[in-house]
Amino acid sequence: MANQRLDHLDKQILRLIAADARIPFLEVARACNVSGAAIHQRIQKLTNMGVLKGSQFIIDPEKVGYETCAYIGLNLKNPESFDEVVEQLKLIPEVVECHYTTGDYDLFIKIYTLNNHHLLNIIHDKLQPLGLARSETIISFHSAIDRQLPICDLALGEEEAKSEEGIEKTEAPE
Questions:
Q1: Per-residue pLDDT for 159 more than 80?
Q2: Residue 131 has what pLDDT?
Q3: H or E element in which residue 137 lies
Q4: 138 and 70 in contact (C-beta within 8 Å)?
Q5: Alpha carbon distance 122, 128 (integer Å)
Q6: Sign of the CA dihedral 109, 111, 115, 118?
Q7: What's the pLDDT at 35?
Q8: What's the pLDDT band for 73 if we cut at 50, 70, 90?
Q9: Are 17 and 28 in contact (CB under 8 A)?
Q10: Could you count the other beta carbons within 10 Å of the beta carbon of residue 127?
Q11: What pLDDT, in 10s, does the model give residues 88-128?
């Protein structure tokens, strides 16, 4: 489903709201030279397509007391227990991401803890009982890059480009 039929206006909207999720729709409409109703329709379309997965406030973990961010590669004793292990990981609130991976690990998680001692307790009391053959923990000192993905303009065929031009011209500003 690469690019899921996103046109120029969709991409322009995505760039604006990715830069500032609190931007008013009317401001987006003005920047895109279309009506506010058109923006509401496009946002709904992008949500229905699954391109937008909602909006949220981003809490700085360190500002609320979580001083340690770690990535942990997990190797399971019984790889058939993936689903059960993931369900158990969901019950650990400090685990904020979990990925099925290729390479050295069966699963790779991101975890925030209050400090290194709290991290040790989570590993010992909550992760080891999940049936790990082994784990490897990498502590992050600081996130050097943390951003949204860029919204790229992939080369369009002539027909799509003509279609986009027609769409832009038919959506009148408010």
A1: no
A2: 94
A3: strand 132-140
A4: yes
A5: 9
A6: negative
A7: 95
A8: very high
A9: yes
A10: 21
A11: 999 999 999 999 999 999 999 999 999 999 999 999 999 99
Task: Kindly report the backbone phi and psi dihedral angles of residue 127, in degrees, each rounded to the nearest multiple of 5, phi listed first.
Answer: -90, -45
- Asked if 144 contacts 69 with a C-beta cutoff of 8 angstroms, the reply is no
Contact 70, 119 (CB under 8 A): yes
pTM for the complete prediction?
0.76
Q: Which amino acid is it at 61?
A: P
What residue has token string 């058109």? 38
- Whole-angstrom Cα distance, residue 112 to residue 139? 10
pLDDT attached to residue 4 = 62
* Structure-block tokens of residue 167: 């769409």
Cβ atoms within 10 Å of 105's Cβ, excluding its own: 19
Provide the pLDDT for residue 45. 94
- What the block records as the tokens of 159 is 């027909």
Instruction: Give me the sheet containing 68-76, strands edge to edge.
Output: 95-100, 107-113, 68-76, 132-140
* Residue 107 host element (H or E): strand 107-113
Checking if the pLDDT of 10 tops 50, the result is yes
- Read off the pLDDT of residues 131-154 as tens digits, 9 standing for 90 and up: 999 999 999 999 999 888 888 865
Residue labelled with tokens 């000192």: 141
DSSP string for 22-69: T--HHHHHHHHTS-HHHHHHHHHHHHHTTS-----PPP-GGGGT--EE
Q: Which helix (H) or strand (E) holds 13?
A: helix 8-19
